[in-house]
Write a structure and sequence with these properties.
alpha+beta, 3 helices, rod-shaped, 21% strand
Length: 122
Amino acid sequence: MARKAGQLISRGPRTWLVRISLGRDSEAGTRKYHNKTIRGSFREAQTYLSGKLQEREIGRHGDQSQSVLRSVAHNCSQAEATAEKLHRLRSAVAASHPPGTRDKADRRDHPVRHPDHLRSNV
């Protein structure tokens, strides 16, 4: 059975010492703890303890989540760069064809036939 990672120690009425084991100091070999005094109910102290223990667990597995976050951020930055290039390209096309000139160019490329060609020679 695993050892408890945290302790709740009564220090008086509605006062609790929350102690969380941080392991041993590698140089001195002494045990290290995170200590916090909670003034409130036992349940408030339990909530603080469980929150800190969750933070500690996330810290242990944080490398995996950080790599996922880095890859998502990288993909987002690539998408932003692609969107920026597309925006610049559209701006360049719009600048080369000011409003009104594009229609004229289309008319030159594809002449409109007048309805006179539909009449029969009478």
